[in-house]
Design a protein that fits this description.
Elements lengths: L1 E4 L5 E4 L1 H22 L14 H6 L1 H10 L4 H4 L5
Antiparallel strand pairs: 1-2
């Protein structure tokens, strides 16, 4: 569990089980939309645009740093690092 300072000075606990429950419900809603409508339009307002999660967690920066340090180049080309 992570503990964060809430804006009003209290504490906010973010539970992995709570997050998993929210994600599971969201997946169910998405699946129901696809099954019932053939598209995800009913849940689209709750979704990120394509690429937004990568930007949020810093994927482009991580990929760039992995390419820049050279540790994995030989392994990716079939050689040993």
């Amino acid at each position: 569990m992570s503990l964060k300072q809430a804006p009003q000075g209290g504490r906010l606990v973010m539970s992995p089980a709570g997050i998993a429950g929210v994600l599971a419900r969201t997946v169910q809603d998405h699946d129901r939309a696809l099954a019932g409508h053939g598209h995800n339009q009913p849940v689209r307002r709750r979704m990120f645009e394509l690429g937004a999660p990568d930007a949020l967690i810093g994927t482009p920066r991580m990929l760039a740093s992995g390419q820049d340090d050279g540790r994995f180049g030989a392994a990716l080309k079939g050689g040993r690092a």
